[in-house]
Amino acid sequence: MAPDLLKKRTRNDYKFHLEYRTRWSDNDMYHHMNNSVYYYLFDSIVNTYLIQQCSLDPPTSSQIGLVVHSHCNYFAPVEFPAIVDLALRVNKLGKSSVTYEIGVFRRGEEQVKAVGEFVHVFVDRESRKPAKLGMADALKEGLARIAAETSKL
Questions:
Q1: Coil, helix or strand for 49?
Q2: What CATH number does residue 49 fall under?
Q3: Domain of 129?
Q4: Most Cβ neighbours (<10 Å): which of 26, 60, 61, 123?
Q5: Interval 49-92: pLDDT, tens
């Protein structure tokens, strides 16, 4: 999606939200949150949702999600100390894959600071191949609850 459209994202474009309090160690030498921290946050909100809403138990589940693609568009810096609101939605839900979009908002500000995306492919834990029937029902049903409306992609 074009960065100028992503830059217009609001909290209401997302269906699941999670708070994160920045830490001093999140800053880099330029006094803003390091790029790698954004990816840590993306992973955190996605896995929080999968565990809380999709019955996924990462240590024991027969299916696991492998990240096969990720990227981030940065629009404005975030730095310590700050509280950020992470926002999650599903842009595409396939048989064994899901494309997530994550918005990062600084508490008290409406402008989105960054929008990230990553793709999980759910595979059998042992074989590392997608299951013939696709992802587990509870997983797919949970992800469908935060799917974006096609008109808002």
A1: helix
A2: 3.10.129.10
A3: 3-152
A4: 26
A5: 999 999 999 999 999 999 999 999 999 999 999 999 999 999 99
